[in-house]
Design goal:
Layout (H helix, E strand, L loop, with lengths): L11 H16 L5 H13 L6 H35 L3 H30 L6
């Protein structure tokens, strides 16, 4: 058994809140407003987190959320632009839609990676 001081471990509430935020981000694929709830929690609580491992997860969550949000906005603009310019050509819409799907899969990867590393007690890099 490891000889670890209780003060060396993150508080359960900090770790649980980080997990809740990951779950809220994952839920955004079904309920879009959960993305903004998680985003707000990240920004409100990030200054209060003491454990460096959990802090790294908050930084990862915030960074991943910004990349997803910007990518999503650009992808939607691209889909609308291609649809308008091409007059709704199916091939053009498929190509533009690919970027929406790729951005979503990347965000899902970030969420899963974060949950697994949080569960293992490892920081994000």
């Amino acid at each position: 058994m490891e000889n670890m001081n209780l003060s060396d471990r993150p508080s359960i509430s900090e770790k649980n809140l980080a997990l809740v935020v990951y779950i809220l981000y994952a839920a955004c694929f079904f309920v879009g407003v959960s993305f903004f709830i998680a985003f707000i929690i990240n920004y409100i609580k990030r200054g209060e987190i003491q454990d460096p491992i959990i802090k790294s997860h908050y930084a990862w969550q915030i960074g991943s959320a910004w990349v997803f949000l910007i990518g999503f906005i650009l992808s939607v603009i691209g889909v609308l632009t291609v649809t308008f310019i091409s007059g709704g050509a199916p091939g053009a819409i498929l190509i533009a839609g690919f970027f929406v799907i790729a951005n979503s899969l990347r965000f899902l990867y970030c969420i899963i990676k974060g949950i697994l590393r949080l569960n293992d007690g490892k920081p994000m890099k």
